[in-house]
Structure formats: C-alpha cells, structure tokens
C-alpha cells in the first residue's frame, strides 16, 4: 500500500462483466483504518482478538468513456464485486 499514489493507473474487472475490463485512476487514499474511518461495517468475528482486519479505502475514478465497450444491456451498479489491479511504479 505504501507504493500507491493518486494518479496511478488501475484496471478494474467487474465480476459480472469480466470480459470487459475498464480503466481508472487512483483518486485518493484514505489515511485512517478501522471501522470509525470506513464506510464498510467492521468484521466482528468471535476470534477477532487473534487478527484485526484493517481496511485502507482507496477511491478510484473511472476514465471518461471507460464503459464505452460494454454491451448496451450491461447493468453496472454500486456494490458490485470487482478486481482492481494497480500499475505501481517504484
């Protein structure tokens, strides 16, 4: 995570439409971790004392016309599962 920077290129693949990867860029990185800084609910397993889950939110912005190649029937909505691959330059 320390190598991620705003502006880095991201290729996003939406699980429901895996044949159509879309391009994006990192817009911002949130500096806080844990439930108080996250829009996602905390992971409260009974054994959470063994390992604490930390989430570091990364906001990405899709590039203009990123979905132009998608079929007209493609429904893309918030909350869909995706895989994001970031091209990091060290």
Task: Give a brief rundown of this model.
This protein is mostly beta strands and 90 residues long. It has strands at residues 9-14, 22-29, 58-62, 82-86. The protein has a four-stranded antiparallel beta sheet with strand order 3-2-1-4, with no helix packed on it.
- Count structural domains: 1
Number of DSSP-assigned strands:
4
Give the % helix: under 10%
Shape: globular
Number of helices: 0
Our measurement of the CA-to-CA distance between the termini, rounded to an integer number of angstroms, reads: 12 Å
The helix-strand sequence is EEEE
Instruction: Please outline the major beta sheet.
Output: 4 strands, antiparallel
Unreliable sequence segments: none
Strand content: 25-35%
Mean pLDDT across every amino acid position: 79
Strand order of the largest sheet: 3-2-1-4
Please tell me about this protein's structure.
The protein has 90 residues and is mostly beta strands. The protein has one domain. 0% of the residues lie in helices and 27% in strands. It is built from no helices and 4 strands. The chain has strands spanning 9-14, 22-29, 58-62, 82-86. The chain has a 4-stranded antiparallel β-sheet, with no helix packed on it. β1 and β2 (22-29) form a beta hairpin. It is globular and about 40 Å long. The protein starts with 8 loop residues before the first strand and ends with a strand.
């Amino acid at each position: 995570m320390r190598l991620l920077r705003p502006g880095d290129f991201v290729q996003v693949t939406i699980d429901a439409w895996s044949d159509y990867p879309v391009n994006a860029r990192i817009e911002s990185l949130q500096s806080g971790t844990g439930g108080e800084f996250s829009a996602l609910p905390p992971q409260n397993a009974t054994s959470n004392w063994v390992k604490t889950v930390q989430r570091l939110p990364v906001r990405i912005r899709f590039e203009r016309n990123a979905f132009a190649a998608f079929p007209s029937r493609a429904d893309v909505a918030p909350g869909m599962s995706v895989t994001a691959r970031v091209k990091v330059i060290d």
